[in-house]
């Protein structure tokens, strides 16, 4: 009797465990179905250049749940966790993009960048970063699941070898803590850094994926060579990796937004809380650190591409944005610095017009060069100025260079496709373009010599630096 009773008890326990496992699987399936439905609510279009093929509709894949639910969805390890997942409602699920739209708590409470330069980071900033890490992990897991499903579907259609199977397999085999691969030159003869952040498809919060700006990577590398400076661009390996992911869209129901790696963020649209862990930003800081003590005047050039402006729109073949320098000077109330920026802008306009005037850029009705500074009352100027005036917690490359890395001069170049095409095809024009930039920078240094702070480089140290 005792043996039979023990056997019956074990049988009941096994049955209970089996029921628990079944409820966990059912909960995970229901949660996954909800996630898919949430992901497909909106499908905005990605921005593409005029001569590029139309990009498939892109859908936001950003979502998250409360911390206790995150653990349940990820591990499904207990019956109590299961009940929380089963009780999950749409109101209780908080989309990730809603959290990102909210400014970092420390800034909402009135903290400034100067307050961030202390020995320790505010607790709110650490809490926000921790939450973002867990939310990002959810996005990465969902992204990997989509790639695995795509791989299985391709193998069913073509068992002997699918078009993207090998590349997708390599991407899935990458480590969880993978960082983007960047290309940083090591010339350092002149304190000039040239960047091109938009050489690949990139994810942006609350926006469609940013399409690649053709030829910007090549222009940045050549321009840095002419100026005997340093360049920072996406590596060939990273470019091919993104191209392989985007190619998956053509033979599947996925959008560009769904196949892009959520860990690869747009370096020109970073929040303050992201800077410490962003490899692109940390490389900019590293370059500035090598130069700052011996070369107080440093130039940063950020290369971008823009669409050809319409006849009724304000624009130019070359738009030079001085927004980062302007915003920093206005914040400090330095009238002498504002005068230096205006003089630098005039020198840039004069030297670049002289360089481009004989190139025959079409259409001729469009101005050759214009210099813009941010204006909160003019969204067009704010857009091309190189500063996110309407989003104070966002930082462009030029803003990061001036406010965090300590560059004395930082400009954003927006070039039309015709101008970019001329520069990559004609070495002489490329040299003339580079020398014109250098001439304006030299004139600015001679007219307004940089001031070295008595406290040295320590005044520019930021808690956002990587330890």
Describe the structure.
- With 467 residues, this protein is α/β, with parallel strands linked by helices.
- It is built from 18 helices and 9 strands.
- The protein has helices at 2-39, 67-75, 79-86, 96-101, 105-108, 113-116, 123-157, 165-172, 216-226, 236-247, 256-259, 279-292, 323-332, 335-356, 379-384, 397-403, 417-425, 427-447, and strands at residues 182-184, 192-196, 230-234, 270-271, 299-305, 318-321, 369-372, 394-395, 409-415.
- The strands form 2 sheets. A 7-stranded mixed sheet has the order 1-3-2-5-9-6-7, with helices on both faces.
- Helix 14 packs antiparallel against helix 18 (427-447).
- The longest helix has 38 residues, at 2-39.
- It starts with a helix and ends in a 20-residue tail after the last helix.
Produce the secondary structure layout.
Blueprint: H1 2-39, H2 67-75, H3 79-86, H4 96-101, H5 105-108, H6 113-116, H7 123-157, H8 165-172, E1 182-184, E2 192-196, H9 216-226, E3 230-234, H10 236-247, H11 256-259, E4 270-271, H12 279-292, E5 299-305, E6 318-321, H13 323-332, H14 335-356, E7 369-372, H15 379-384, E8 394-395, H16 397-403, E9 409-415, H17 417-425, H18 427-447
Parallel strand pairs: 2-3, 2-5, 5-9, 6-7
Antiparallel strand pairs: 1-3, 4-8, 6-9
Helix pairs in contact: 1-3, 2-3, 7-8, 9-18, 13-14, 13-16, 14-18, 17-18
- Share in helix: 40-55%
Radius of gyration: 26 Å
For the biggest β-sheet, the strand order reads 1-3-2-5-9-6-7
* β-strand amount: 5-15%
Shape designation = globular
Number of helices: 18
Report low-confidence residues grouped into runs of 5 or more.
24-121, 451-467
User: Which structural category fits the helices and strands?
Assistant: alpha/beta
Question: How is the main sheet built?
Answer: 7 strands, mixed
Distance between the termini: 67 Å
Mean pLDDT: 74
Helix and strand sequence: HHHHHHHHEEHEHHEHEEHHEHEHEHH
E-strand count: 9
